[in-house]
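Each record in this resource describes a single protein on a pair of labelled lines. An example record follows, reproduced without changes.
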Amino acid sequence: EIKLYAGTASPDLANKISNYIDAPLCGRDIIEFPNQNLFVKLHSSVRGQDVYVIQTTSAPVHRNLMELLIMIDACKRASAARITAVIPYFGYARQDRKDAGRVPITSKLVANLLTKAGADRVLCVDLHAAQGEAGARREQEAGPGVPLGAGVGDERDRCAVGVDGDDAALHEEV
C-alpha cells in the first residue's frame, strides 16, 4: 500500500496522479503562521509505508520548497519505509554547476536538503542539464523514466513522471 500526500502548490496535479493510480490522497494539515512559519500534520499513519509527497517548487519557490521539506520530515519522523518526492518543477535546477569562483551549486544544495529531510527518491519531470543529475546522493529520476545517476537503485523498482499536456501523471515502468 502506498500513501499519497499533496502540498499546496499543485493540488490539480496531485488529484490527477491520485485518480490515475487509483490511490486516495491522504489528509494533512498545512498551516502558515503570521510570521510565515509552516506547520504540517499528517492525518494518517505512514509507519512502514511507501510514501509519495507531491509538491512543485515553482513560485513562491522558498515557501513551496520549505513546505516540501517539512512534509518529507514529517513522514520520516512518522517512520515511513520509503519517501519519494514528486517534484514537477525542480527549483534551482539551472544553478547546476560552478561557472565562477565563490558561487554555489544550488541544485546540489536542494538535492542534499531533500535527502537530509528524508527523501529516498526524487521524481522530476525535467531537469536543466545532465550535471544536475550527478548532484544528488540518493536515487533521483527525471521523466520520462530516465534514471539520474546510472546504476543507482534497483532497476525493477523504477517510477517515472510522464508528461500529459501541461500536467504530469505518475506511472510504474515495467
About this structure: Residues 46 and 75 are 7 Å apart (CA to CA).
